[in-house]
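user: can you give me the structure for this one chain? tokens are fine.
assistant: on it. calling the predictor now.
[tool input]
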Amino acid sequence: MINGFDDIQKLNKDNVDLALKSFGALSKGIQTLAAEMADYSKSNYENSTAAFEKVVGANSVDKAFEAQAEYVRVAYEECVGQLTKLGEMYTGIAKDAFQPFEAVVAKATKK
């Protein structure tokens, strides 16, 4: 139970500390996501440029279709892998951001 002004101040300070920890974890996670997406975008651009050069430089229509089909296959696999990785990263960010509040929730549910 809250008894007096000092207890209210301590409770508020604790809540602000928890919010700052949560915000710090969220901020770090978003920065990691942004870096990951930038790396993926750069890689995707380079791969698509190389595939375009293969298609344009093909000696025959069959070779051009083979190069295009290979690019589509690889791009699809990379996209699925990237989406899986991003999903795991989002889950980790959510866990890290809400971790400071776990003790408060556990304490509140025991009462």
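assistant: here you go. The two ends are 11 Å apart (CA to CA). Residues 5 and 11 are 10 Å apart (CA to CA).
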